[in-house]
Amino acid sequence: MRSALRLLCCLAALIAVAPSVAATEDPEAIAAQLRDRALAGDGIAYDFVSELTTRFGPRPAGSSAEHAAADWAAARLRALGFDGVEIQRFPLVGWIRGEESVEIVGAHPQRLAAAALGGSPATPEDGIEGEVVPFDSLEALRAAPPGALAGRIALVNQRMPRIAGAYGALVPGRLFAPGEAADRGAVGLLLRSIGTGRARFAHVGSTRYRDGRVPLPSFALAGADADQVERLLALGKTVRVRLHSQAGHVDTHSQNVVAELRGREAPDEVIVLAAHLDSWDAGTGAIDDGAGVAIVVAAAELIARLPQRPRRSLRVVLYGAEEVAQPHTPETGGAAYLERHAAEVGNHVLAMESDFGAGAVQALSLPGGVAESEFGRALYRVLTPMAVVPSREPPGRGGVDIAPLVEAGVPAFVLRQDGSRYFDFHHTADDTLDKIDRAELDQNVAAWAALAWLAAETGTDFRALSAAEVDQ
User: Fold this and answer.
1) For 219-248, what is each residue's pLDDT tens digit?
2) pLDDT per residue as tens digits for the range 401-415
3) What are the boundaries of the signal sequence (predicted)?
4) Environment class of residue 344 by beta-carbon count within 10 Å: exposed (0-12), middle (13-18) or buried (19+)?
5) Exposed end of the chain (fewer CB within 10 Å): N or C?
6) pTM value?
């Protein structure tokens, strides 16, 4: 895939006979030229994600690093010529990890590679000890009778296969296992990391609050360490574990950074290009979601360099607080944006989100009515040279950040990426800049720029076409 992408870049760079963007007004031809420019490396994506992750490192929601990254991003967007750049704050209960440890105690003492799940409460100063009781799934835990885990520590030890959809299938374990374990008397929870990598890192993520709190201290356990516990249990050993955490909460804020390329003819018709600025605290948030931030900004910046603005408005939204849950409200960046822009949501014609790293775009999901339109056919003609094919999977909610818009009736388009290695690094200390391939990043920008331009130039009513599909 990488070799093919580099070949595409070289071919695009050699198209010296192609007319300049200024020499044609055909939207499809301009989209193709935007594509070729991006494939040839004429874009700011890599420099943007490099500076973001280097300057600010990890950007936990509500942290000073997230705030500083938002200020920096807003300043960069203004300097790039975007209109109406604004930082829109909203209140947040931030979670601070603090010092933590998980270790086997007793006859076989050893330290385990683990990390508290987001929102997990602190333990007493001396920690919590308990015998480990294993379960091979969330469903198996739910089948345990009340009181079965009194004074013990549950281990949900379900492996994630390297197949599409596996992450979504296993995430309920992270969300609901703490509450289910607490209902059965447990004093703590260990969850095998939801990830595919073989490196000895825990894959973290938020869990669910219940009545304003996460019910018990809960930790993600590196896959190799979950295997270690499993082997000890298979030897007939009683495994006793001590959990220690100094995690805490703080009242703070997060923010969405909003910037536009104001449309020249239909400025009130808005296309949202979304990604999120916050990240987990172990790595530097390069693939999740620094890459997405760079892709949407770079795609819009290529369009901003055209001789004229697009017909409709392109709105870049860099969301805050995508990664976290909240004790008393579902409000994160997506909900805050919807509340702030409720009066104009009816004029949002389309929303897209980049939040799956920098793997190459392989397929495009459009609502059925859109896919069969002249717009859809033109778009596929532009994307086909990059080996992007129509997806049989519908767009669905489009992504966590734009889901509130989609639920409010805004159509979603989805550029589906190669995610074969994404969950090796996702939510770990290994989510760093070196995991991003420049050619693949540029290929994403090419697809986004071409799609965004065509969608902004057309008069196609995406809402009507999407609704027509639903009514069939």
Assistant:
1) 999 999 999 999 999 999 999 999 999 999
2) 999 999 999 999 999
3) 1-22
4) exposed
5) C
6) 0.93
